[in-house]
Amino acid sequence: MSLERAESLAFAGRLAAAEAALLRSSPRSDRDRVVHAWIGAYLAAARGHFSFAERATRALIADGGLEPELHARVAATLGSVLRQTGRHADARVVESAALARRPRGAARAHLLIGLVADAVGVGDLAAVDRGLRRVGSRPPGGWRVRVRLRWVRCERELLARRPATAATHALRAYEVADAARAKRHVAKSLLFYGAALREAGEITPARRALGRSRSIAARVGAEPIERVAGHLLARTPGRARGRR
């Protein structure tokens, strides 16, 4: 079972299958060993094992010698872990350093999107807009780039108090993730969608989206998404404040 297969399964949100594939893989080079460790860290982060994922990715970066694109992948995973544990400024440092190595293509796009998410995390709308201009409307990369860009556009609109527009971006992210059959990304897109609908006062569809997010996340083992969706559900009233 190849590392490429394990990576594909990880991105598809098939976490248990990816873990099994990773166990069966046999790294044959130094680069393979780095990729193997990075995929393991990605899977740990997806399951909410943030301390392990942070240690693993920091160790890979500290060893040095990574090619720019691989360094960018590792840094993007570490940046995600730092954001999910409330350390947006630290994530910016990591991602900016990786970007300075001039990665290309999707690797660069993921770092730029991460920097936008960092700006969202500290509430800097002007920096968010500058970051989005830097990303561009059609950055290179596959479905993951498109989904993540819609996520940060959703966050931007929530920060600007435009929840209806935010919901539109989240719905587009869901559609791309669903077409890719990427269950964890589907769950996270529904989380954003439900949060945006909730802010717009659309309580019934918000609860439906959040419930689906929690259910899908639970099935694939994406504990952080399951936890946040459950938290929002618990705080969402049973009837709408606004439109009906």
Instruction: Kindly report the average pLDDT value.
Output: 95
- By CATH, the architecture of the domain at 142-244 is named Alpha Horseshoe
CATH C-level of the domain at 142-244: Mainly Alpha
Beta-strand proportion:
under 5%
Provide the gyration radius in Å.
18 Å
Query: Helicity range of the residues?
Result: over 70%
Largest sheet: none
Oligomer: single chain
Class computed from helices, strands and strand pairing: mainly alpha
Uncertain segments are 240-244
User: What order do the SSEs take from the amino end to the carboxyl end, as H and E?
Assistant: HHHHHHHHHHHHH
Main attributes of the structure:
244 residues, globular, Serine Threonine Protein Phosphatase 5, Tetratricopeptide repeat
General description of the model:
The structure is a single chain. This protein has 244 residues and is an all-alpha fold. It has a domain at 142-244: Tetratricopeptide repeat domain (Serine Threonine Protein Phosphatase 5, Tetratricopeptide repeat). The chain has helices at 3-11, 15-24, 30-46, 50-63, 68-84, 88-99, 105-121, 125-135, 143-159, 163-179, 183-199, 203-220, 223-234. Helix 9 (143-159) runs parallel beside helix 11 (183-199). The chain is globular and about 55 Å long. The relative contact order is 0.09. Mean pLDDT is 95; it is low at 240-244.
